[in-house]
Amino acid sequence: MRFSQFFLVAMFICLKSFSQQPVKIITLDPGHFHAALVQKSMYPQVDPTVYVYAKKGSDLNAHLDKIKGYNAAAVAPTKWIEKVYEGDDYLTKMLQEKKGNVVVLAGNNQLKTDYILQSIQSGYNVFSDKPMVIDESGFVKLKQAFTTAQKNKLLLYDIMTERYEITTILQRALSMQTALFGTLQKGTVAEPAVTKESVHHFYKYVSGSVLTRPAWFLDTKQEGEGIVDVTTHLVDLVQWECFPNTTINYQKDITINNAKSWNTTITKDQFSELTKLNEIPSYLKPTTNANNEISVLSNGEFNYTIKGVHAKVSVIWNYKAPAGTGDTHYSIMRGTKANLIIRQGAEQQYKPTLYIEPLVASVDFDKTAQQIIATISEQYKGVSLKKNDKGYEVIVPESFKEGHESHFARVTEKYLDYLLNHNMPSWEVPNMLAKYYTTTQAQKMAAKK
């Protein structure tokens, strides 16, 4: 091989290697375990060295401990190298040093919106846990962040893991089959066309261990009320399933009809079990009664119309799930020919299960259902139907039933694809704005009550 040929081959190898690892992650002020879950997997496009900027303290230590655990895992261990800066000036330091090009955010939601805006203004791409905003003033900043991101060709995106849950994927796919589902009903306030409900728990296991919550997680000024937190996922799914690949204009397409919030009470013993702290911090005193019980405005529900369709979302937070159970999800989409329902109760052994329930049973409907499932099983091998007294249960092979933690890898891979190939669909940004407009307007309405 002549020198010129050798040089060209060497250059190609170098360029190929660079193209596979152009992403350098910065983790800013990690206070929620979702920041670590982004790193439960490795990605060929991402440099294994991650720069972490935060104050010294238990939040940072918990984050680093989880990364160490992933690096030491018996199965599929990761190889992350954490370069940590600890100090009160962590944000200023991060903005100045430019150690990476993607800022990962998951932590205190009161601070998060400012982190997003300042990171975008400083030239960083941002990959943010939900919620990106927790009130109406935060929504104004988010609009500014998206405008700046577009101007400077940066990618701002939130972590919507629930799009990767298999029963939700199939519910969406079946709703697009008019021969089976018909079209989405308009619904009413009393009987919405789409309803999504979830039950969550403060005390839970993550990566096999009991999760220690930071005390500020119980302060809705810092964490956000339930109506703007978990409901972010539910509103996203309403948009993603009911209006696939469609742009939502929040100024024209959304109206909040009613909204309410209510408290979950956390006892002093539960607080200590949850946070590993003996004393309740001063910022929780305004919501703590004489018996040292903390009222957390973690529950919320609202009914709204989106493009003329009535939708309802609600979230409930209990302290701890009964033995053998966990967080649960319920979802119904009402079609003109059939309803598509996800249930996750005792009958389903607390595992999400999808049902097809025709409005009018018939031999023709049975034939149609079998034909459509046969087509879907070409992509999702082994998906089938089981007849019951109301219609069908959709049987899903175990290989498709990834847990919540695995979904972080899926959404991170999607973000990296958008970042490197500049192929994010045009509807994603306006629909993120629509989503946070919906949650913050519902919070505003609930607060007036």
Write a concise synopsis of the structure shown.
The protein is of the alpha/beta class and 449 residues long.
Notes on the protein architecture:
37% of the residues lie in helices and 24% in strands. It folds into two domains: 12-158, Rossmann fold (3-Layer(aba) Sandwich); 162-448, Dihydrodipicolinate Reductase, domain 2. The model is unreliable at 1-19 (pLDDT under 50). By secondary structure, it is of the alpha/beta class. It is globular. The strands form three sheets. It has a nine-stranded mixed beta sheet. The protein has a six-stranded parallel beta sheet with strand order 3-2-1-4-5-6, sandwiched between helices. Strands 8-9 form a two-stranded antiparallel ribbon. It has helices at 3-20, 34-37, 58-71, 90-97, 109-121, 136-151, 166-175, 178-181, 220-223, 231-242, 250-253, 268-275, 363-376, 404-421, 428-448; strands spanning 25-28, 49-54, 81-86, 102-105, 125-128, 156-158, 194-203, 205-206, 209-210, 254-266, 294-306, 309-320, 328-334, 338-343, 353-358, 384-387, 392-395. Strand 1, helix 2 (34-37) and strand 2 form a beta-alpha-beta unit.
Any key phrases for this structure?
449 residues, Rossmann fold, Dihydrodipicolinate Reductase, domain 2, 2 domains, six-stranded parallel beta sheet, 15 helices, 37% helix, 24% strand, globular, disordered N terminus
